[in-house]
Amino acid sequence: MSDARMLILPNGGAAPLAELPRLSLDTLREAIVTARRRNRRVSALFGAPSADALSLVLVLADDDTGLLECARADLTGDAYPAMTPECAEVHLFEREIAEQWGVVPTGHPWLKPVRFHASHRPGHDAWGRAPGTRPVVGVTDFFRVEGEEIHEVAVGPVHAGVIEPGHFRFQCHGEHVFHLEISLGYQHRGIERRLVGGPDKRTIHTMETLAGDTSVGHATAYCQIVEALGGRHAAPRGCALRGVALELERLANHTGDLGALAGDVGFLPTASFCGRLRGDFLNMSALLCGSRFGRGMVRPGGAGFDVDGARIAALLARLEVAERDVTDSAQLLWTTPTVMARFEDTGRVSADMAAELGLVGPPARASGLRRDVRKTHPAGIYQLVHIPVSTAESGDVFARAYVRWLEVTRSIDYIRRQLTELPRGQARRDCPPARASMFAVSLVESWRGELCHVAMTDQLGRFSAYKVVDPSFHNWIGLAMALRDQQISDFPLCNKSFNLSYCGHDL
Amino acid sequence: MLRILYARLRQGHRTLPFPDRVPPMPDRFRGHPVLDPTRCPDGCRDCIDACPTDALARDTGGLGLDLGRCLFCPECTAACPTGAIAFTGEHRMAARHRDDLVVRQGVRDRAQALDAKMLKLFRRSLKLRQVSAGGCNGCEADVNVLGTIVFDLGRFGIQYVASPRHADGLLITGPVTENMRLALEKTYEAVPAPKIVIAVGACAISGGPYVGHDEVHDGAESVVPVDLFIPGCPPHPLTILDGLLSMLDRIGADRLPTEATPTANEERIRWARARADDALKTLGADLGKAKRTDSHDRDP
User: Fold this and answer.
1) pLDDT tens figures, A11-37
2) Of A286, B168, B259, B274, which shows the fewest CB atoms inside 10 Å?
3) What b/e sequence results for B216-252 when a residue is b if at least 16 CB atoms lie within 10 Å of its CB, and e otherwise?
4) Which residues from chain A sit within 8 angstroms of residue B148, using beta carbons?
5) Which residues in chain A are contacts of B131 at CB distance < 8 A?
6) Is A266 on the interface with B (CB under 8 A)?
7) A7-106 falls under which CATH superfamily?
8) Distance between B101 CA and the closest CA of chain A, angstroms
9) Which among B132, B142, B164 has the least Cβ separation from residue A164?
């Protein structure tokens, strides 16, 4: 049963802002802290400035009905009782609200900056810092385990490999990790603030670079928002082509991850093969739209590029060769005892823990949770052609690798089917401008998991608020928990099995 | 073990014969743009208005396209009513000086090599520390891919190292966020002199899609001196590799074929189309998939 007090929207739905109910803070709080009991999970919780106050806006996902429950509550004053103690999955949302809007969630057990920037409301600061001062990134009260034999390992922001910056602190007893704390914010580019007042000619490019390896995913989430606000669906052919691009993006990244996992346990055959095969999938995206990362492929109203018979045939041919090679490479992993010995029982996250923390994407599915927006909240082409949810039970590195492999096989099948039965007609149609004073929500299952975009428009149809929730925002805490009671030398392997985004988190 | 050997046999030799042969790029690849301002209708600014990062501008020198700001998106070519802008299949775009990145009706040289002293030090061995300073992981991914067997960066003596203390220079991606500025400065300081700095991608050159944001510094040059600029969003791996090898004087030094006269420009576009046709032939080769193509016919 859906909650009568909430605004109910499908994925990619929009409604007049006036229909977004204003609940009392207590009622909103009740909806959040009872969410898990009622089989709901928090897709987004954020602050949005209203006339003279600040509203908390909530989007709950109901995976059974495929509906989204939305509501808001006005905050009075600069503090409210924290919900995190009763609902762990909002822990980072509440920290973000505190940092952006200078509101203190009283009783939050871990109230630290998320991205280390000044408050968006000058004069309101959750940590009482003087107006005009800028927090220094990475300077916060890190959790410490005390003891004579305890030592601390600090890594980053500049890492040893070619990866994005972040700071990791391990509390260790010998090799044994008691606790890992992850402190990010180095990639913060001020994106959400820049989106207010849009959309403009730069918005789609900002979306394509929110997380560059998820260009198709974020661009699709954004286009679903623009189409919902404009009140016109995308061209069916364009939707199918977006689906092809999204699954190619998944194939490239999952294949790359399988190779990187092999590399982290010193198994070079699969590491070498998959490193190359990842490029083959990227080149298929380039065949579609000229860009290895799918830039330019997804545009409001449909797809930026169409395909003809020759191109479809070429894609299918390349897909077949790549499928054979990636199957060979992945099977080597599951049949090599030295690989399996390192993958199995490393970095375990239980189903209960995954649900409590609100994990999404492959890490959630690897712990047995059936969370996949393509199945539970389908939009676009996924409404017509379903894709099975790939899950595993053990919640360890093996499970996260194996879920990726299952998804590789299913994405290949999906692309093959889409390309052979593409809807006729134009790939793109005109998209009317955004309507005024509207509220829209869009979810996309990217390769890392659920992307949630939420937009609100003003009287002129411009964004008055635009919220982006990258799957990494939910999942970084999962990595921290996976490392508990592991050896510190297993960190690279666990980290790669999550492969989370820094820029998608930092925005 | 036999299974591994069999897989190895099936996967085959995959390293590109670059730079001896340049593999064809995908036909829709948007490489080095060419401009033909003689086609511009009077007073038209459709491309300038369409560009998301203001890479296009008209000044006393006429219409210019700043590759350092360009995202290589299709918006300007879609907006142009007369086809005065075209992206070609040319992947070579790197430059040693920021000003050299502005494309006009004129001849651009490819990136100059380092001076003799620096070449003596680095030509056969260059160790780089990569710093992502607000990059979206697009540039990082295509910098990383040079380490795969397809490009095998190591055969040129170029390697990414784990510490700035072990490095000859920095390879910077991202617009340099305020939150990474200090880390970048410290990393630069930690590299022993003489050192070189390479800015990869629109962000590291100009701020890219984030130019003008409060939280970013609009490129690496705001913090450290830059010796090589490699444009793109992200640059194709071959664009990065060509830039590195040009700087090290390891690759032929012919001029970039962006000729001055309109006739030559037509030829230039014909040349680009011919390369696109090559790419389409590769598509055809894919269709005859029963016969595996040789590695030099494949896409990088």
Assistant:
1) 999 999 999 999 999 999 999 999 999
2) B274
3) bbbbbbebbebbbbbbbbbbbbbbbbbbbbbbbebbe
4) 272, 275-276, 279
5) 158, 165
6) no
7) NADH:ubiquinone oxidoreductase Nqo5 subunit (3.30.460.80)
8) 21
9) B132
Residue B185 in domain: yes
What are the backbone angles phi and psi of residue A106, rounded to the nearest 5°?
-65, 130
A120 in reach of chain B (CB within 8 A): no
Domain count, chain B: 2
> Are B123 and B238 in a shared domain?
yes
- Residue A116, SS3 per DSSP: coil
Region B213-239: mean pLDDT is 95
CA distance A34 to chain B (A): 36
Asked if A137 is an interface residue toward chain B (Cβ–Cβ < 8 A), one would say: yes
Is B75–A215 a contact, with Cβ atoms under 8 angstroms apart?
no
Query: Who's near A324: CB < 8 A, 6+ residues apart?
Result: B10
Note whether B113 and B122 are within 8 A (CB).
Answer: no
Beta-carbon contacts below 8 Å between A and B: 205
- Write the residue in B26, B150, B215 that is nearest to A276 by C-beta: B150
Confidence at residue B258, expressed as pLDDT on a 0 to 100 scale? 47
Contact residues on chain B for A310, CB-CB shorter than 8 A: 280, 283-284, 287
CB contact under 8 A, A290 and B160: no
Residue B289 lies in a domain: no
Q: In the structure, what pLDDT confidence band is assigned to residue B267 with cuts at 50, 70 and 90?
A: low
For A293-332, letters b (16+ CB in 10 Å) and e give bbbbbbbbbbbbbbbeeebebbbbbbbeebbebbebbbeb
What Cα–Cα distance (Å) separates residue B246 from each residue in A442, B147, B193? Answer: 45, 18, 21
Using pLDDT thresholds of 50, 70 and 90, give the confidence band for residue B290.
Answer: very low
Among candidates B3, B28, B289 on the partner chain, residue whose Cβ is nearest the Cβ of A290: B28
Domain containing B152 equals 116-247
pLDDT (0 to 100) of residue A122: 86
Query: Do A54 and A25 touch, CB atoms closer than 8 A?
Result: no
Report CB contact under 8 Å: A158, B11: no
Instruction: Report pLDDT for B297.
Output: 44
- A330 to chain B: nearest residue by CA? B7
Are residues B66 and B133 part of one domain? no
Q: Which of A278, A280, A332 has the CB atom closest to B4's CB atom?
A: A332
How much is the average pLDDT of B269-291? 56
A401: its two tokens = 């690798």
pTM for this model (two decimals): 0.93
Domain harbouring B62, CATH code: 3.30.70.20
Check CB contact under 8 Å for B71 and A205.
Answer: yes
Chain B neighbours among A 168-197 (CB < 8 Å)?
A: 185-191, 193-194
CA A242 distance to own-chain centroid: 18
- Verify whether the Cβ–Cβ distance A211 to B52 is below 8 Å: no
What's the ipTM? 0.93
Do B238 and B262 fall within a single domain?
no
Alpha carbons A326 and A461: distance in angstroms, whole number: 46
Do B103 and B60 touch, CB atoms closer than 8 A?
no
Residues A360-396: tens digit of each pLDDT: 999 999 999 999 999 999 999 999 988 999 999 999 9
pLDDT digits (tens, 9 = 90+) for A438-454: 999 999 999 999 999 99
